[in-house]
Amino acid sequence: MSLVRKRSVSIRGHRTSFSLENAFYDIILSIAAEREVTLASLIAEIDESRDRDSNLSSALRIYALDWVRKNCSSHQ
After folding, report:
1. Residues of the chain with pLDDT under 50
2. What domain range includes position 30?
């Protein structure tokens, strides 16, 4: 079971929070490590590119899902 957990990060000079299940958070951490960027940098990038009608937590989940889909299809 993966409970939703609230987390905080500083991006562009201010604190922001998001809520993610551990599984999604682990994927986001993996993406940051693979791309050799900080977690805050990756979250800032996702935040900047997200649809303003969606919240940051949703944008992070979609980003993680898209990343997994791309990686799964490239390994088939």
Report:
1. none
2. 23-74
